[in-house]
Task: structure prediction
Amino acid sequence: MSGPWWTLFGTVFVTVFVAELGDKTQLAAFGLAAAGKHPWAVFFGSSLALILSSALAVGAGSLLARRIDPRWLHYAGATLFLAIGAVMLVRGPEANA
Result:
């Protein structure tokens, strides 16, 4: 993605923000904050966890992009995403219960 860094920053921010809304991590943080007396500990703990997991993803992606053509990484990610979706469709919702 070319262009100013803030364009990439904004794209990443919006993408991750929307993806995280209502996911299991957010619901876990909601539950932990509601159950305890230290909501700031939940905030900082969940924030640090997201930062570290993002750092791992960025580091791994950068390392792989140096060794493998990013186009093939894109294809592999899309294929894996579709395969997981197909398995979930075939197994049905009762498989997760």
Summary: Residues 39-67 form the longest helix (29 residues).
